[in-house]
Amino acid sequence: MSLSVTNSSIESHCFNLPEGEGAQLTLAPGRLLRGDPDRRDWPHFESSDGKVSSGIWSGTEGAWRIDFPAGQYEFFHVLSGTGAIVADDGTRKPFGPGDAVLVPQGFRGVFEVAEKVTKQYMFVQNV
């Protein structure tokens, strides 16, 4: 379910756990580093200009490259599972249930899932 923001009213949106099968996501060639992860998305909200989106994401064990361009940020809250964000310089930031993570613009590195992760996310782009 995707909702749009309008200037005429203020809306709040609550979302907790995924419902249904979700949309299966694929990785672009060359991004997958380890495993055969099943990655799924349950989009919940997207602003009318496409700059903000949120939803629930889940992925099984594996590792893949992530490269955030200038102006793109992700904030996520881990509902379950464990993993880590590993920067290209080797800095490792593990995460687990209850953790809040901010991936900054320009980040280059690896997203690792050790135990199936389910997270609530928000992307902000072109700000």
UniProtKB/TrEMBL annotation:
Pfam families, alphabetically? Cupin_3
Q: Which residues form the (S)-ureidoglycine aminohydrolase cupin domain?
A: 47-121
SUPFAM superfamilies cross-referenced by the UniProt entry: RmlC-like cupins
Specify the superkingdom.
Bacteria
What Gene3D superfamilies does the annotation carry?
Jelly Rolls
Q: Native species of this protein?
A: Trinickia terrae
Q: Which CDD domains match?
A: cupin_TM1112-like
Query: In its UniProt entry, what is this protein called?
Result: DUF861 domain-containing protein
- InterPro entries per UniProt: RmlC-like_jellyroll, RmlC_Cupin_sf, UGlyAH_Cupin_dom
